[in-house]
Amino acid sequence: xxxTSFLFGRLTLDSLDPLKVFLHRVDVNMIILSGAAWAVVLxxxxxxxxxxxxxxxxxxxxxxxxxxxxxxIGIMYIVLAFIMLLRGVxxxxxxxxxxxxxxxxxxxSADHYAQLFSTHGTxxxxxxxxxxxxxxxxxxxxxxxxARDVSFPMLNSVSLxxxxxxxxxxxxxxxxxxxxxxxxTAYPPYTGVNFQPGVxxxxxxxxxxxxxxxxxxxxxxxxxxxxxxRAPGMTFFRMPMFTWTILCxxxxxxxxxxxxxxxxVMLVLDRYADFHFFTSALGGNMMNYANLFWLFGHPEVYIxxxxxxxxxxxxxxxxxGKRLYGYGSLVVATMAIAVLSFTVxxxxxxxxxxxxxxNAIFGIATMLIGIPTxxxxxxxxxxxxxxxxxxxxxxxxxxxxxxxxxxxxxxGIILANPSIDFQVHNTLFLVAHFHNVLxxxxxxxxxxxxxxxxxxxxxxxxxxxxxxxxxxxxxxGFSLTFFPLYVVGLMGMTRRTVSFxxxxxxxxxxxxGLGAAVLTFALFALCMQLYVSIRDREQTxxxxxxxxxxxxxxxxxxxxxxxxxxPVIPHINAREAFAVAKEAGAGYQAPKSYSxxxxxxxxxxxxxxxxxxxxxxxxxxxxxxxxxxISFAIMAVSFIGRAIRGDRHPHTVPAAEVQAEHEAWLExxxxxxxxxxxxxxxxxxLGVAAHEYMEAAQ
Length: 698
Fold this sequence. Notes:
Strand content: under 5%
Low-confidence stretches: 693-698
Number of strands: 2
Order of helices and strands: HHHHHHHHHHHHHHHHHHHEHHEH
Structural class: mainly alpha
Mean pLDDT: 93
Helix content: 55-70%
Radius of gyration: 25 Å
Largest sheet: 2 strands, antiparallel
């Protein structure tokens, strides 16, 4: 037994979820639980078999897993986000189905339902939205500021590896053991060792700690990149709005992620070493956790939403054919939101014992943060006013966002009143509110950015038919799913409830369940859009690099852009430099001379962090201490060794090769017939836009 304990820690045969359907009484709940485990196992086997059969392991290893190219790292972040979106949506639909049948008890056990709402929230915040926005910032920002790459390319790979390690732990929890039942916030005492002695809270702690470290490093990387890597002439007030929002987001990451890491480590010490930071005994206080978590948690809302605001700014200007209205006010509003985001955390626990004066101060601060957000909405509408608005898929996501997000924001202003918050706290009204903010505000923005920059990533546009279907299904499905929750929340239905006894709730829960079915089809449509786009990619080729008649520097490059981004670092003389250059007839000019381009070499650090970070977390969860020691030692030695020896394999692209590639692309551009915006969605659009520049009245 001692030998087995040393090898496997507290991992036993009964911990294997795929076997539970054979070892325990079989019912619908058990079939779903074990079925999910089998889906992960068989899905992993199928993925390995497919990659082996297609012979893709070598190109993936050589061109992707070890790369430090910011664009490829961004694409891998988005791939991770889509994988986690698949699980997150399925879990959300399962919860809505359970509550649709909640009057009759449903089909899930209370414990299983508690795991579902915990994993759903954790996945959607930390492993879907965060990787999605990190992917978009990796793809667009260095090119928007005229840089070759981020300031620390190897660290970028490390950040991705840590994020993947956290995601792997969340997926492994479907196969080994269970996940936390303490919600995505992991409040003690619900996640304390006395209440949950099992492995669930440990999975949450180590997955979030690893991805939190990765996000902190990403924030540091992009702050330095935007400060130091801007092209000559790219002053702060010539930066694109997306880059501005990413700068503020990166600063928030640097200051907001450490409180989460500190709170997680303190809870780890409570669980593993019998500390008492958050217990009632020996001087502990769980309110310390609540303060630390929300000192991260509310800035986190704006870490998520600010990049989406940047996407909406780019999309609105591009598809209105106008210069972005109120650029200065948008910059100030973005910075105001970033600052105010640190002043509102206490509204998350208005009901937890503060006096009325403290609640009033934080209620006022919460209302104030709505002002700069409103400024942005008005600026986007003013940009559209008298513009030639084209309702492409990204623009449709933007318009739907404006309508739905304003409703969610208004419900947030209502909740900022402590006396009202006392009435609806911990009800489904609150669930409706934050989904009303996060889905249109963040998720729609990520999908708009994904559609907008897809041709820059892969050299062909996404299918529009399936894009429109997906967009409308997301919007209609969201409305049907979450608007009924406002009603039942006001009627008193509490959140995180596996079933209910009030028949008045049933109709609204059935409508919400119908909405969840529409959201399922929206996810299917999103997958179909990608499949059809790849299948028909020859019909939507983007050769010229500017399929939308866009305005910022990333569109002045081929699609997909080369590793070095620009043959020569551009000199910037105006805001929206590419649009101004096209207006002057100088959008596609060969530089006077070329020089060698020096690029960083590939690295194993991202792979090491992903593989051994996952092993380290798994060992900590199951108390397999030999695995913990070996994994941590490998990560530490590799990181320190890489820092000492530096980059031993830098890559130089000769000037002649750069010149040949760039001039060959320019020659292709000259042979392409520029298309008007009426032809934007047609096969004739090969990525060169006809001149239709319009200057907004300022």
